[in-house]
Amino acid sequence: MPVIHNLDQTTQRPIILTIARRARLLLMAVLLSACTHQPLAAATEARAWDDAQQLVLVTSAGWSSTHGELRRFERVAGAWTQVGDAMPVALGRSGSGWGVGLSDARTDGPVKREGDGRAPAGVFAIGTAFGYANSARTGLPYQAMTGNDWCIDVPDSAYYNRIIDRSAVRAPLLDQSSEPMRRDLHLDGDQRYREGFVIEHNLDGKVRRGGSCIFAHLWNDPQGTTAGCTAMSADSMDALLAWLDQRKHPVFVLLPTPQYLALKSSWNLPEISR
Length: 274
Known about the structure:
Strand content: 25-35%
Number of strands: 13
Distance between the termini: 82 Å
Radius of gyration: 25 Å
Shape: globular
Mean pLDDT: 89
Number of helices: 4
């Protein structure tokens, strides 16, 4: 059998240095890959709202913040321009958490769940406007609500996270919903849903228990909170509804400020100016 001779230190040193150098290069490649993966993925993700010409941005101090600021932006010649000044808004009683929308699912923070009192964070399409009146001044499609219209917040229902007319639809569990769209008729004259629009979080309830019935609507009290919606004054809502235009593919973005700053560039989000 062959004899294996011991190598002296002079012979081993170049081999050891070569191995160490290769290990360092490999480590650097792994670190660079890790650093560039998320921005590249986020930039690709932003293509989901590339056609948006209007953007509603809500920012708050942190995940547990129950109040924030809303700003409107229009895309002019490819750049976002702020429209008007910031408006105060009320958020969920538990703050906010990552939701299900146009942006990819994330777990680097709280995740929205049914009944948790968090407003969903991320990027979402803006859906139908609604209210108690027969019509509204808005560029969104509008649905006048009746005493039979309910948003189904029961995860086991086939109509979870949909607004349905309970007089026309017959299905199990509908009577267990706690979300009448005419709160004034069912809840002692409550005016919170007198004007509002749908934030398309967890569209069609695709994530069971992922959260439901997320709207922008009026507040009763500036110091109050919501069950997960974004609430504002009647003046702010009137201005917002009149400005929103379905033809401009508007999106709704809600982020705590640290997440907004981290994602602003890769998500093509606007700069806050005032």
